[in-house]
Amino acid sequence: MEPIALFRDAARTVPAYHHFLAERGVDPDGIRTMDDFRGLPTISKENYLRVYRLADRCRGGSLDHSAAVALSSGSSGPPTIWPRSLADELAGTARLERVFRIFGADELSTLAVVCFPLGNWIGGMYTAAACRHLAARGLRVTVATPGNVVEEALRVVEALGPDFDQVVLLGYPPFVKNVIDAGLARPIDWPARRIKLVLAGEVFSERWRDLVAERAGIADPVSGTVALYGTADGGVLANETPATVRVRRRLADDPERARALFGDDRLPTLAQYDPAHRYFEEVDRTLLFTADGAAPLIRYAIGDAGGITPYADLAPLAGEDPAMPGEPFVHLFGRSMFAVSLFGANIYPENVSEALERPEIAAWTTGRFVLRTPEDVDGDRYLDVTVELAPGSEGDGREAAVAEAIRAHLVRRNSEFAHYVSAARQTPAVRFRPVGDPENFPIGVKHRYSR
Q1: d(CA 431, CA 82)
Q2: What is the CATH number for 381?
Q3: Are residues 276 and 370 in the same domain?
Q4: Taking the model in full, what pTM does it have?
């Protein structure tokens, strides 16, 4: 449903949205053009989701048309409940189908191993349902659901992998890396399984993509790894394509050009989206989207930092690709609330991730960490980084080397850090903790990179 038609329908049938507009003096009949639409007040968790009861945010003020409910991860506050209908699942399936066709799942028998957490969180159940819909559409996909349990995921791959042309692991980046690393220790012959990866929930670097692809035996990271832009709020919103990955890899080697394009020192996730499926807007370098669903969302401010770019502006960077979809691009940095601040400099998790992805560090760590800025005995704040060790690894006094790697990378890639933080305060305090440490790296929940 196009944005203005969806707005009119929601204003008429959704009690909460009708009241929201009336309180702000908005006459739905006056919204006739896209310029009118872009002048509508935005909705957010604070002014809409936490103000109105769940049923009133659905058509008819009822949950009768919701087939299921899901919870957000709660990484940005109390978990939010989202109603889901079959139509919601099918909309997400359409994006996932594009990904599996990139992998050739219309011709190759494909074992889809869902490594997202199962239960009330949206990731695992939503992805498993979409994979089943893919099979119903004729793709050669069989889904297994070990969830985020490493041993169960490996058991599935060992028992069933040899019977399929390829295996697709779907999950959060650090967990998928844990599965691959644990498989190497068994050892599992990953190249023989023809592994592909579907990743979501976190921004990762091209160095990380290459590192994990090498360990998994993925010959072509461009076509063998795909990141999704997915949220509990709107399902699967966009996805990487080989074209967006090629563009991103070129920009990773040209940080000045990337900064000119995206206005930030960080390299964002770059994906493509269908405006008829999810309508994006960029306002003050943050993303809004409009989407139909069991609880329609009109100009919803999700809190993600990023922006949109017309297809023609970035397509030349992708090179010749007749199969490239002519869809606009959306780039995503993630939510600024996950950054920590030190002397006015915002330090983002991806700044530290890239430092830990150096081969001499990545070999014995998982890639997960926690950022804090506590006060020392004199009341001065400093950067504290708690790093998760890989199974069977020990820190062995390597804190200073890791701290220097983080400092050097921050100075090189984060201009605020380089200019705001004095040299005497730039080296972080580094601590190591074992894998699954309950205080910092609890098993079974989405990891929080800042506290």
Answers
A1: 37
A2: 3.30.300.30
A3: no
A4: 0.81
Q: Give me the domain span that covers residue 421.
A: 340-433
Looking at the structure, tell me whether residues 94 and 232 fall in a common domain: yes
The number of domains in the chain is 2
Q: What is the CATH number of the domain that holds 294?
A: 3.40.50.12780
413 in the same domain as 303:
no
Secondary structure letter of residue 450 according to DSSP: B
Tens of pLDDT, residue by residue, the chain (451 residues): 899 999 999 999 999 999 999 999 999 999 999 999 999 999 999 999 999 999 999 999 999 888 888 776 554 456 678 888 888 888 889 999 999 999 999 999 999 999 988 877 777 888 999 999 999 999 999 999 999 889 999 999 999 999 999 999 999 887 898 899 899 989 999 999 999 999 987 778 898 899 899 999 999 999 999 999 988 778 899 999 999 999 999 999 998 999 999 998 888 999 999 998 899 999 999 999 999 988 999 999 988 889 999 988 898 888 766 666 789 999 998 665 578 888 777 888 888 988 998 889 998 999 999 999 887 876 678 999 999 999 888 888 899 999 999 999 999 888 888 887 888 889 999 999 999 999 999 876 678 888 8
CB proximity list for 160: less than 8 A, separation 6 or greater = 111, 142, 144
Q: 336, 356, 382 — which closes off a domain?
A: 336
One domain, residues 290 and 356 = no
Q: 71 - beta bridge partners?
A: 81, 121
Q: Which long-range contacts (CB under 8 A, 24 or more apart) does 436-442 make?
A: 437/388, 440/370, 440/386, 440/388, 441/366, 441/368, 441/370, 441/388
